[in-house]
């Protein structure tokens, strides 16, 4: 639930917590990881093998999703790893829609689709996140699962932005953008967890999480 109006003190507090030293170092690390792993992917051995390229690319989506969520929650307990794994899964799983649209498990067919599959439309992200929030509200799951719409948002956005280096962002039904500049992809990926944390602090989602999950909040 949105707090009616966050006071100036609350905002300042949220900002401080969002940019803790550990989280800033982790997101710089994430940006660096993206850069290094994208260089590694250029090896011709990987580029010449369709399956290897697709699987390693998907694995990177997963790791970026995991890393991003780890920055948001800060890894402190064993159970946090379950959450982080779920974020990685959400980040990777949307590539399955290539195969759904192709109607076959043939990688060649999945890679040469006449159009982009629906989960790669960025408009779907806010729609799905809000639908999820609504469903959770309906079933009164909002306390223990309050993080889920945010996890979906961050996992899917990082995936779309990473795909966006080559394909641009597809904002259906309005069309698509030009391919994203590489620096923009790295900058968005590294700052997304902070943006997410900040809004979560402001909206009280972090408080609910810390009560339910025992996440230690410090400055
Ligand atoms: Zn994709």
* Count of all domains: 1
Q: Which regions have little confidence, pLDDT < 50, spanning 5+ residues? A: none
Termini separation: 23 Å
Query: Main β-sheet: number of strands, strand sense, barrel status?
Result: none
Amount of beta strand: under 5%
Indicate the multimeric state.
single chain
Shape: globular
Ions, cofactors and other bound molecules? zinc ion
The helical percent reads 55-70%
Counted by DSSP, the helix tally is 11
Average pLDDT taken over every residue: 87
Quickly give the structural class.
mainly alpha
Order of helices and strands: HHHHHHHHHHH
According to DSSP, the number of beta strands is 0
The whole-angstrom Rg is 18 Å
Organism: Alligator sinensis
Protein name: Transmembrane protein 267
Keywords: Membrane, Transmembrane, Transmembrane helix
Subcellular location: Membrane
Short précis:
The protein is mostly helical.
Keywords:
membrane; mainly alpha; transmembrane; 219 residues; binds zinc ion; Transmembrane protein 267; single chain; 0% strand
Describe the overall structure:
By secondary structure, the protein is mainly α. It has one domain (8-213). Helices cover 70% and strands 0% of the residues. Helix 5 (78-93) crosses helix 9 and helix 8 (124-138) runs antiparallel to helix 9. The chain starts with 7 loop residues before the first helix and ends in a 6-residue tail after the last helix. Zinc ion (ZN) binds at residues 95, 120, 159, 163. Its main location: membrane. It is found in: Membrane.
